[in-house]
Write a structure and sequence with these properties.
- Helix content is about 70%, strand content about 0%.
- By secondary structure, it is mainly α.
- Helix 5 crosses helix 9.
- The two termini are about 40 Å apart.
């Protein structure tokens, strides 16, 4: 995500000096994005609100050490993602890991792929389809879901996503590819049914 295009410029010196007006402007600019990410990671509004609040509390105290080696948005995403992952680790201590596994390349990829290219466009962008996509994203393993959310939903670059998650760019690309394949497999169930219905109705 490009700050200069999507968000206003901020006076970093003022932020680091505790300027409350500039900090409030930063919160207003980024709170929607941070909340959306937390909600999609945690699937709970109250938990997402808690992560949002904790993110900006930690950011306020850490701003004096912010060195501008990354964009402000990437820095905030990293704080928010770490907070959300720590929350998930506390809730599921044996399931969540943010470390880079050694077998990223060895994990199996989905096999069942249904081609939905012939579906009418209205089927592909319907409200029902979007709801099903959101449910499919929730079914992804956490390590894949967070990469998909940062790259394909929030629009971060591979480099920024790697920085947020403390992964190599290669690992980000591998996980994103696997996430997309798994989503396609999950969505195949839905779209296979839609293809069948459309075929019976003579629409394809």
């Amino acid at each position: 995500m490009n700050d200069s295009i999507t968000n206003p410029e901020f006076d970093i010196t003022a932020l680091q000096n505790g300027d409350r007006a500039e900090f409030a402007r930063m919160v207003e600019a980024y709170s929607g994005q941070i909340y959306r990410l937390a909600l999609k990671m945690l699937q709970n509004q109250q938990d997402a609100e808690d992560i949002l609040q904790e993110t900006f509390i930690k950011a306020y105290h850490a701003l004096p050490q912010f060195e501008s080696r990354s964009s402000l948005s990437t820095w905030l995403y990293r704080i928010a993602t770490n907070e959300a992952l720590m929350f998930l680790r506390r809730k599921h201590p044996h399931q969540i890991s943010v470390e880079q596994p050694s077998n990223d390349e060895a994990q199996p990829v989905p096999l069942e792929i249904v081609d939905w290219c012939c579906l009418p466009e209205s089927e592909l962008i319907s409200a029902e389809a979007r709801v099903y996509l959101e449910k499919a994203v929730e079914m992804l393993p956490h390590s894949l879901r967070v990469v998909f959310l940062l790259r394909d939903i929030e629009g971060l670059s591979t480099r920024d996503t790697a920085e947020v998650l403390d992964l190599s760019e290669g690992a980000v690309k591998t996980r994103l590819s696997r996430a997309r394949l798994q989503l396609r497999e999950i969505l195949s169930v839905y779209y296979r049914e839609r293809v069948n219905i459309a075929t019976q109705a003579g629409e394809v």
